Amino acid sequence: MTVYLSRKLSFSAMHSYRIEQWSDEKNQAVFGLCSNPNGHGHDYVLKVMAGGQIKQDSGIVVNITDIDKTVKTFIEEQMDGKFLNKENAYFQTNIPTTENIVKYVWNSLRDKLEGCRLHTIRLYESDYLYAEKGEDDMVRLTKRYHFCTAHRLHSEQLSQEENDRLFGKCNNPYGHGHNYYLEVTVSDRPDPITGMIVDLSQLDALVEKEIMERFDHKHLNLDTEEFKELNPTSENVTIVIWDLLKDSLKNLYKIGLYETEKNYFEYYGPDQELV
């Protein structure tokens, strides 16, 4: 029986997204503000998850302070307080995108943990952007967005009494509202030149056009075509968002939706099978 445990650490670093063989104009066109040769910085949060068998004598998989020591030593020596492009040999030839950093951390730590095996690495560049790497070759990048909308949970296939019983105050005839947080996750191998798996400016433009313009500050039941006859539960909203993005985002991996801090929904597409 495998049990998983995680440890969270933080560090600060600066970096620049830049290919020296390119002109300033091309670097700015591809990397935007991140192409500043003088660099910019982040307070990163790193989550390390490991797994293993419980030891019968101690009741633990591994002493989590041992994981902490191994990871801290690596981070302090290689990344914390550094200009990554200039002070880390790997990032002198690989652009320190979030995708490349999480790949580098994974490859550096995967054989370093004793008494357990590395399961996933998740790196938060900010509250709105993080990357994750596991045992396969893929890196997953998640961008978070915010929109405000109203809806009424009501099914024409149910009686009014059934709607009242099932949805309670969410069946209010005038509707109610939420601050939704949408997470769009893509999965791919980082491009060997740019270090990216998606152009974030293009992703932002796509989400703005297909999601924000349709749903932000709207009443889903009354103002959108998608939910005129479809009950706008958060389950249905995640599926509709997937369908709106999938054709333009070929490496779409997951849609996550926070209706509230307590209610979270995710959808991996129609091919997902529950096991």
UniProtKB/TrEMBL annotation:
SUPFAM superfamilies membership: Tetrahydrobiopterin biosynthesis enzymes-like
Record-listed E.C. numbers: 4.1.2.50
Cofactors that this protein relies on: Zn(2+)
Entries under Pfam families matching the protein: PTPS
Reactions the enzyme catalyzes: 7,8-dihydroneopterin 3'-triphosphate + H2O = 6-carboxy-5,6,7,8-tetrahydropterin + triphosphate + acetaldehyde + 2 H(+)
Pathway connected to this protein: Purine metabolism; 7-cyano-7-deazaguanine biosynthesis
UniProt KW Metal-binding keyword: yes
Record's keyword terms, sorted: Lyase, Metal-binding, Zinc
InterPro entries membership: 6-PTP_synth/QueD (IPR007115), 6-PTP_synth/QueD_sf (IPR038418), PTPS_Cys_AS (IPR022470)
One MF term in the entry's GO annotations: 6-pyruvoyltetrahydropterin synthase activity
GO aspect biological process, one term: tetrahydrobiopterin biosynthetic process
Family: Belongs to the PTPS family. QueD subfamily.
Name recorded for this polypeptide: 6-carboxy-5,6,7,8-tetrahydropterin synthase
